[in-house]
């Protein structure tokens, strides 16, 4: 499994903004669901992001903008739906070190964050976005933490996507890898079970890039990114560069 990789896109990814970040996109209404939308309307490829359980974090929104605009020669329309309808899990729920927090987390994953139920919504959302943005010919997906599981479930037979990616994925199940129908990029943190990540890669029969950022925590490319830390900021930027290289190859 690759541990370090050269990324051509790292040369174009702008430095991450530390502190108050002003998103470049806008929120559109899609049948009552808010969708963060960024990138040029002329783009012919799109990336559908499934965020983590903390919802629209500034770090995730900044990542979406990086994917949309970082490479002037290959830009994307990027969409991030609000699956939780403005009610993500409260940050104070972590760590789940009390019975009340454990109960709250369990109910969240059984309800609004149910992976199978969420996965069922994805094809219809992609279809509706495609009807609205008719210039898009290819779709990629990106799952962050919890969203990584949704990507695994929606990259199987009949998938809407041409390429898929997961960053610091949650609930890594090597059995999911056997059904992947499209190329996939997996960027794991040092917190994921390395055996699960390795077995996931072994079970893939599609083109793939699997890399572990061993000194980064689960969530370093999304809500848990401490961009005031220079090492985290550097690996956040490098991670998005690796994603761009992957999407450039497949979208």
Describe the structure.
The chain has 251 residues and is an alpha/beta fold. Helices cover 34% and strands 18% of the residues. The chain contains seven helices and eight strands; from the N terminus they run βββαβααβαβαβαβα. It has helices at residues 58-69, 99-110, 115-132, 146-153, 174-177, 194-203, 230-250, and strands spanning 26-30, 33-38, 45-50, 77-81, 138-144, 163-167, 184-189, 208-213. The chain has an eight-stranded mixed sheet with strand order 1-2-4-3-5-6-7-8, with helices on both faces.
**What is the percentage of strand-forming residues?**
15-25%
Helix content: 25-40%
What is the β-strand count? Answer: 8
What's the N-to-C terminus distance?
23 Å
- Tally of DSSP helical segments: 7
Weakly predicted, low-confidence segments: 1-11
Q: What is the averaged pLDDT score?
A: 92
Strand order within the widest sheet?
Answer: 1-2-4-3-5-6-7-8
**Mass-distribution shape:** globular
Largest sheet features: 8 strands, mixed
Topology record:
Blueprint: E1 26-30, E2 33-38, E3 45-50, H1 58-69, E4 77-81, H2 99-110, H3 115-132, E5 138-144, H4 146-153, E6 163-167, H5 174-177, E7 184-189, H6 194-203, E8 208-213, H7 230-250
Parallel strand pairs: 3-4, 3-5, 5-6, 6-7, 7-8
Antiparallel strand pairs: 1-2, 2-4
């Amino acid at each position: 499994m690759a541990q370090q990789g050269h990324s051509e896109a790292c040369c174009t990814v702008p430095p991450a903004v530390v502190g108050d970040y002003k998103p470049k996109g806008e929120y559109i209404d899609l049948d009552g669901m808010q969708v963060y939308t960024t990138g040029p309307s002329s783009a012919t490829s799109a990336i559908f992001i499934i965020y983590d359980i903390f919802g629209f974090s500034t770090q995730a929104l900044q990542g979406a903008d990086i994917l949309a605009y970082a490479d002037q020669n290959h830009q994307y329309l990027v969409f991030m739906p609000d699956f939780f309808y403005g009610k993500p899990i409260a940050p104070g729920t972590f760590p789940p070190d009390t019975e009340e927090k454990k109960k709250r987390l369990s109910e969240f994953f059984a309800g609004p964050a149910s992976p199978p139920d969420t996965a069922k919504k994805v094809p219809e959302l992609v279809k509706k976005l495609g009807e609205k943005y008719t210039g898009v010919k290819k779709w990629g997906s990106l799952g962050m933490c919890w969203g990584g599981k949704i990507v695994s479930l929606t990259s199987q037979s009949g998938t809407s996507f041409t390429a898929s990616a997961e960053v610091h994925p949650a609930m890594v199940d090597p059995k999911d890898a056997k059904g992947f129908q499209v190329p996939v990029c997996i960027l794991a943190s040092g917190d994921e079970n390395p055996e699960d990540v390795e077995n996931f890669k072994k079970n893939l029969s599609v083109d793939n890039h699997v890399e572990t950022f061993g000194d980064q925590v689960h969530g370093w490319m999304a809500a848990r990114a401490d961009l005031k830390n220079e090492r985290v900021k550097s690996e956040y930027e490098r991670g998005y560069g690796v994603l761009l290289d992957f999407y450039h190859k497949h979208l």
